[in-house]
Design a protein that fits this description.
The protein is mainly α. The protein has seven helices and three strands, in the order H-H-H-H-H-E-E-H-H-E. The longest helix has 25 residues.
Length: about 210
Amino acid sequence: MFSLKDMLRRFTDVYNKNPTSNLGKLIGILHDQLQQVNDTLDTVRDWRDIDMAQGTTLDRIGENIVQSRGSSTDEVYRVLLKSKIARNLSKTDVNTIIQVLALALDCPYSDIRIVEKYNDSSEPEPAAISLIKVPTKRLNEVGMSPLQFGQIIQKTVAAGVRVAQIELTGTFQFSSKYDQLETGPTGFADEAMTTGGTLGEVYIPGNDYPLPI
């Protein structure tokens, strides 16, 4: 986008090219209008990305992949859109399920671990899986409850496979030294509450709304 000075510079020297001149003020009005158009075009380009889009733009993306919003916020709806796109390409094996969930939550594959229960030593089940490692922090960031996340998982696995358990993991660890307090990214928080580990539990609100999946 040209600046106001660049636009005035294109006139011949017989004109007063001072930005405060009459010509400068007139070109300034034109420049402001062109800047608004340029900003709008930048927004249109950026909002083609699910992570950047908002509001009705996300709804139109959902129409393209047949994923309704329901009562979901933009943050939760982005997870639904990403998971729907990934589910459309899913082969329903364990590795693909991990890829779908990692894509939906925007986290590394290593943050998710799935165990098949057919060889469980205590409660074996032929067609069931357990998620024993799911990033609690990411669920909290998007405002999604474990019940809602479980809906996405159940829609991702093959028909007839049950999701038996979802274990949400935190990062908190106790001190490695006896009688000594440790703070940091995995320990207790500091006084400013800017650092500290997260517990492996998630609050489930009583007014959960079902996701349209």
